[in-house]
Write a structure and sequence with these properties.
The complex is a heterodimer of chains A (114) and B (112). By secondary structure, chain A is mainly beta. Chain A has no helices and eleven strands. Classes of the chains: A mainly beta (114), B mainly beta (112).
Chain lengths: 114, 112
């Protein structure tokens, strides 16, 4: 158990809908990262927050957004969902924001868009 | 810019024989490199990391990796495979801002 929690474990929704994925980092970690794992794209970095501030952006679509709250938990919002958004979404956390810090991964949220 | 290439998408070994998972990286500066393992329907677990100290890095569960700058490689090895090692393995390079770039993954199968 990495200490990173993600909810929900599974999510099934329809095209055009909006969902929110939640992540709680390990105790003491200030940085949260979001990754997407799909069969065709592999594992891709989406976005990073450090102590409430956006720190880095990767291949994140404009339909997706994230935030980190004062208690350091983070939410990833996915809107206008398309079939291609079906994937496993991982959250990771680390102590610091600039590397190289080990990142600890949560169990993931499996999103299915029908 | 940085990238990671895992040279084999699938590797099959017999239980008790050595494991070699190959990884080449590209980075514009001195990289930090990691190997992560993903068991079916599970999250990613850190196996080991290289951060410019010793070039031979020991990890968990008997795995180790050697950083070779001249070959831009970071291959993962284990002397004797166990059935529980069957999983997907990812070679990862850390870039600016601690952003991770993943290789395509190598699925390790262990035959009894």
């Amino acid at each position: 158990d990495s200490g990173v929690t993600q909810t929900p474990k599974h999510l099934i929704t329809a095209t055009g809908q909006r969902v929110t994925l939640r992540c709680s980092p390990r105790s003491g970690d200030l940085s949260v990262y979001w990754y997407q794992q799909s069969l065709d794209q592999g594992l891709q970095f989406l976005i990073q927050y450090y102590n409430g501030e956006e720190r880095a952006k990767g291949n994140i679509l404009e339909r997706f957004s994230a935030q980190q709250f004062p208690d350091l938990h983070s939410e990833l919002n996915l809107s206008s969902l398309e079939l291609g958004d079906s994937a496993l979404y991982f959250c990771a956390s680390s102590v610091g924001g600039r590397g190289p810090y080990e990142q600890y991964f949560g169990p993931g949220t499996r999103l299915t868009v029908t | 810019a940085q990238s990671v290439t895992q040279l084999d998408s699938h590797v099959s070994v017999s239980e008790g024989t050595p494991v070699l998972l190959r990884c080449n990286y590209s980075s514009s500066y001195s990289p930090s490199l990691f190997w992560y393992v993903q068991h079916p329907n599970k999250g990613l677990q850190l196996l080991l990391k290289y951060t410019s100290a010793a070039t031979l890095v020991k990890g968990i569960n008997g795995f180790e990796a050697e950083f070779k700058k001249s070959e831009t490689s970071f291959h993962l090895t284990k002397p004797s495979a166990h059935m529980s090692d069957a999983a997907e393995y990812f070679c990862v390079v850390s870039g600016a801002g601690n952003m991770l770039t993943f290789g395509g993954g190598t699925r390790l199968m262990v035959k009894p």
